[in-house]
Fold this sequence. Notes:
Elements (H helix, E strand, L loop, with lengths): L4 H15 L2 H9 L8 E11 L5 E6 L8 E3 L10 H20 L13 E6 L40 H30 L3 H7 L1 E10 L5 E10 L14 H14 L2 E6 L2 E5 L5 E5 L13 H12 L3 H5 L20 H13 L24 E3 L7 H22 L10 E12 L3 H8 L18
Antiparallel strand pairs: 1-2, 1-3, 1-11, 4-6, 4-9, 5-6, 5-10, 7-8
The structure holds zinc ion (2 copies).
Amino acid sequence: xxxxxxxxxxxxxxxxxxxxxxxxxxxxxxxxxxxxxxxxxxxxxxxxxxxxxxxxxxxxxxxxxxxxxxxxxxxxxxxxxxxxxxxxxxxxxxxxxxxxxxxxxxxxxxxxxxxxxxxxxxxxxxxxxxxxxxxxxxxxxxxxxxxxxxxxxxxxxxxxxxxxxxxxxxxxxxxxxxxxxxxxxxxxxxxxxxxxxxxxxxxxxxxxxxxxxxxxxxxxxxxxxxxxxxxxxxxxxxxxxxxxxxxxxxxxxxxxxxxxxxxxxxxxxxxxxxxxxxxxxxxxxxxxxxxxxxxxxxxxxxxxxxxxxxxxxxxxxxxxxxxxxxxxxxxxxxxxxxxxxxxxxxxxxxxxxxxxxxxxxxxxxxxxxxxxxxxxxxxxxxxxxxxxxxxxxxxxxxxxxxxxxxxxxxxxxxxxxxxxxxxxxxxxxxxxxxxxxxxxxxxxxxxxxxxx
Length: 452
Ligand SMILES: [Zn+2]
Ligand SMILES: [Zn+2]
């Protein structure tokens, strides 16, 4: 099939060229910025002058070169749309960077606040094939970095699949519990009570979830101490990096979430013993740290565009039928077992609220991938709005240069009605978009932690 695609595309373009403006068509497709699965809409839009009632502009799908309105899919997953995931990654990078060094409306003073980069792991659910530093795996082999056996259980029959998916399902609640303990431990460390802490310090964070090869979620987070009103206010001098580090360590140890009582067994979910806390280098940081703001922002942004599919080899969309959906997908036996465990447990009424079937492709984790506290930084929405405002200004400038200025947006009423008409690009549109008929390859996960 792929070898026939260029012929199909060229034939389509040749027949289009007979009755359509190919240049305009190419411009419409190229405005998608490389989006591979745009949403296609049919309908119309009328721009009406608010006072005179004059129709200033009319757009109907049939007048558009593609015959339909095309809108970027905006998917964050690199396996779904490389171009849109790249936009998401860059926005996330900006958001994290603004919270570390300022910019985008955040004061550069924020760089003086104590902040650390923390990795929270999941506990063990049974031994898996790995690459211990400088040594051999327990199975006796020295696995290569891309060995698909990595992360798979040494003994699948004894691996705690139920514990593994239920841990993922409770990871979000465990994080929430951790943040409560963190405030408590900071107050104890500072020798003040919780309400005095609230009046002098605010804890801000941004975190991203990443899947380890074994299919367990772990979290990477920037945790920062601010003054009482967030990023714009300086924390008290006693709010040091070492106070923060100690408080994180004990809060992570204390945090636990009770699991369901099922088949005579109940679980309690905690973080794994491996906890990595590293100060992030800043203007005022006097200790030794090789971790820069840039490395942290790049690392978090990278993982914001990945789901379970990149590390564990599961699928990147919800499962409807666990048997037929997994045939021919190249999903590993280990990931299959995790998905099937979600499916099986998802039938239990007492686990309804975990919605394990809906989130089976995420191996039970239903939390948000990237989250932040309100005061951490700017928002993705604000960054998108700034980009759209910038594009509006460009459109306006171009229209003025072309001698047909657009009316003031405040005086124009927009009446629009669009309905969903499908997704994706035709073969000809793909050719106009990339100059190729196949999708570009997706970058893979390398699973490394950042260094300066
Ligand atoms: Zn897209
Ligand atoms: Zn091994």
